[in-house]
Fold this sequence. Notes:
mainly alpha; 9 helices
Amino acid sequence: MPDTYSVVKQVSTALFRSVAFQALALGFAYPSNAVVQQLKARWSALLTGSRPWPTGVKQPFQHANRLLLSTDEETLEPEHVRLFGPVARCPLYETAYGDAGRLLGRSASLADIAGFYLAFGLCPTTGDTHREDHIGLELEFMSLLTLKEAYAVAEGWQEPMEITRTAQQRFVQDHLGTWIDALTAQLSLCKPHPFYATLGESLCAMVRAEVIRLQVSPVPVGGPVVDTLMGDDSLQCPYAPSSQG
Length: 245
């Protein structure tokens, strides 16, 4: 049986990861006044006090937070539209990256991601405009899994703890870990506002730390898919309410 110190440490680490994933997810949301205020509060709280930061992760978060505190929604809103809006210079969807085979397999990939969500009781809400492979939803899902892990550890539930950890490994291996490098590389090419540049660096550092922690080896995909024949909206997941984001 693990000692109290070990349990507290495991719970603290899982809770920290949950909050960090949630903070990153909010960073990619449309920066309305309310969202920007939440961002500033959550990122500042995350960086306050002693946290179990993985090596190399805290610095980009600190940089992003300094830039966030010196800007506002009037600056970030048009930049968010330019980068992630309808023209999508930098798509925020997993299946927007990779080769032609990736495009043809989009429906299967979306169904697989939806399967992860459904396995933990999650399904699209009415009016949700994002597909299952949106970066915000994938990060929120990791936040939920790590929160469940913390609860299972605190309660001493071995099987639920193993289930949530295995789900994290598989999700990072098959999905989140495969396209973050491509996303952040594309973001850099778009010459983003410094906040979004450092948000991408924070995301990249966090996911790379997870790859090491979970001991997985995701196969990276390439840059944005170019579909000259069918267009971006030709293949859709039957579960997806909309492809816009």
